[in-house]
Amino acid sequence: MNVPYSWLKELVDFSWSPEELANRLTLAGAETEAERLTDIPFDNIVIGRVEEISKVPGSDHLTLATVFDGREKLAVVCGAPNVAAGQNIILAKIGAELKGGFKIKKAKLRGVESFGMICSERELGISDDHSGIMVLEDSFSLGAPAFEAIGLDDHVLSLDLTPNRADLLSVMGVARDVACLAGSKIKYPTYMLEEVRDEAAKFIKIDIADPEACPRYAARVIRNIKIGPSPWWIKRKLLLCGIRPINNVVDITNLVMMEIGHPLHAFDYDRFLRKEILVRRAQEGEKFATLDGKEHVLTPEVLLITDGEKGVACGGVMGGQESEVSDKTTTVLLESAYFNAPTVRRSRQKLGLITEASIRFEKGCDPNAVEKALDRAAYLLGEYTGGEILNGVVDCYPNKKYPVVIKVRPERVNAVLGTDIPKSRMVEILQNIEYGIKDRGHLEVTVPTFAVDVTREIDVIEEIVRLEGYDAVPTRDKNKGPLFSPYPEDEQFCDNIRRILTAQGYDEIYSGGMADKKLLEQVSGAQPAVEILNPIADDLTVMENTILFTLLKSAGHNIAHRNVDLKLFVIGKIYKPGAPPLEEEEIGILVTGKGEDTWYNRGASLGFHDLKGAVEAFLGWNRITVKGYEPAARPALDAAESMAILGADGELGYIGAVGENIARLFDVKQKLWVAVISFNKARRGIGPVKPYQPLPKYPAAPRDLAVVVDEKVRAGELLDKISKEGGSLLESVSIFDLFRGKQIGDGKKSLAFSMVYRSPERSLEAEEVNALHQKIAESLKEGFGADIREA
């Protein structure tokens, strides 16, 4: 949601800079950034007027314009199709700098000298429109600095809204919070609606066949309008909000939507076959062409606005071509309705569209703002199209929606928050955001219908705390329960995983949670999955039951885009059938392709040991014991290269190579190595923090030991045996070499171990170390049939 800073200044008295206002809104629960509309310098960009035009010789599209800048006339070559004599325009003179650092210099085009540029919106950095030059009203002073004169030297507040803040999808909604924070009041626009005697009800009839999908539909009729460009103040506000101006009728409906937050739609009344509105479900296979020129085949999921016979709009999403306002329109039927959010969501999914209207209806509009939006737009249409507003609103509202009344206990507010906010301050905050209050010992709070997410006492408490300021809430108070608990241990664990894996060059990806049913069955071995009742797409019909699906899908997407060397990890949720479905978390890691080239390691392929090192790094850092690995088949993995990861209390997860048949399902032909670990099992395995150990005082006694054993003997078993036999004097042991060859015979392997002996209390004698070393060697002979070699 983009809100112009200057528009808020019109509505509310406050003295904060754009940056400070953005910070205050962020602290009130709506993450906000303030940015200038355009970052180009304003020097040498002025208001000018095109005095005369002529064709450039040898060109079929270039025009030579004589432009007066208030002091002198300049010859300017222009390629825009809409340039004409008598226009007020924006002129970039020699020395000006436009978007992208483009500097205006004296130029010669087709032998004709040009001393500037007549600018489009894109060249000024205020929109992407470059279909023609910007044409201004005659009221601007020639030669005036353009950005100051037209009011575009402004900031735009960009609000990143959470789904529950539908009330902030309008300038008025944001102004309401700003007024509360500033201790001020909103200065609502005032206007007097002038209607003619003819009653609108005689010109249009409204019938709602599905009142659950469309609880309210209202309309006004405005006749004798004249389609044309909007006045600059309307265009300016729309541009600042990121909306392209079209014509006065469409612009006014968009302006009111941005101002009040309620979408409107204007129909060409004369193109209706019957002078009525029937709101119904679409018929199976019914065809409908939307304003974007696309024809859709509808189903009963789509709510259709009709003229009694044919469709004229998809309710809450987009209007239709057959009733579109055009230059020939003289009578407008202005719609203001309230549509059920799930219905709009299903309609726009079926159409494959997302519009400003659908966004607002899906998040929740105010059913009682219908008439206010209608009257505001009708007034503006009367003022700026010359139209006559017929008497009255035709309003079909079968089941009126009333504000929710909630009992709020001031003592409960402070108990939840751990604060001492006086009741009078609570009342002040709620009244400032236009809630009704009756003090009956407790507070009887009437919640306006624009606050669609406020339905319980705890919701009202949230409103109080966000506007009082989260910084006013104590983080901990032994006498009152803390609002904010200490940093959750699960989040600490996640952050530790991210820290360790990103330090090793891994990139984090995110799981969407949804999967293609057939693909998922292949990956998970037909384990049951949670079905989605209302899938958003045909290939996203179930919830993931293994995080491996996300890893494989991401690998396939990256490799398809020629990003073939990958080190990825994900921490995501999986879902298993149940009532309700069970939700768990898994950690997934994937490597494929080649590692980073270094002077000591060029072109080496990523493989099992890279993956194993990453797993042991993040588990080890979190003090989670890895006891070893043992062969264990998994549906998606190559049976010969699949192992279980064993922790202190059982299996933590698995690691191995993805089967070629599974990789090809995701269009991957290169080898993929993956590890999947249960978040909860790993989390439970976190050991105690190790106490501080001083640096050793006594010298170490290093020794090496090389043994030849059967191929089937696991290295981990040898390490466990060495550690057990070495006891407290064996400080560390690790493998430093593996050898296979004819020198030691088929079916054999040689493993070399590096061992360090040390006592924390004394220096070890050579004889003592040698005896212990020999004891370890003998235990390997006895336990594994090992032959001892010289290391």
Can you describe what's shown?
With 791 residues, this protein is an alpha+beta fold. It has a 7-stranded mixed β-sheet with strand order 27-30-31-35-34-33-32, with helices on both faces. Strands 11, 13, 14, 21, 22 and 23 form a 6-stranded mixed β-sheet that branches. A 5-stranded antiparallel β-sheet has the order 5-4-3-6-9. It is elongated, with a radius of gyration of 36 Å.
Write the layout of secondary structure elements.
Blueprint: E1 2-4, H1 5-11, H2 18-27, E2 31-36, E3 45-55, E4 63-68, E5 73-78, E6 88-93, E7 107-109, E8 112-114, E9 116-118, H3 121-124, H4 146-150, E10 155-160, H5 171-182, E11 195-199, E12 205-208, E13 216-223, H6 232-240, H7 248-260, E14 265-268, E15 276-281, E16 287-289, E17 295-297, E18 303-306, E19 311-314, E20 318-319, E21 332-338, H8 341-351, H9 356-363, H10 370-385, E22 388-391, E23 394-396, E24 404-408, H11 410-417, H12 423-432, E25 436-440, E26 442-447, H13 457-468, H14 489-503, E27 507-508, E28 514-515, H15 517-524, E29 542-543, H16 548-560, E30 566-576, E31 582-592, H17 608-621, E32 626-631, E33 637-647, E34 650-658, H18 660-665, E35 672-678, H19 679-684, E36 701-710, H20 715-726, E37 730-739, E38 748-757, H21 766-784, E39 787-789
Parallel strand pairs: 11-22, 12-15, 27-30
Antiparallel strand pairs: 1-10, 2-10, 3-4, 3-6, 4-5, 6-9, 7-8, 13-21, 13-22, 13-23, 14-21, 15-18, 16-17, 18-19, 19-20, 24-26, 25-26, 28-29, 30-31, 31-35, 32-33, 33-34, 34-35, 36-38, 36-39, 37-38
Helix pairs in contact: 6-7, 7-10, 8-9, 14-17, 20-21
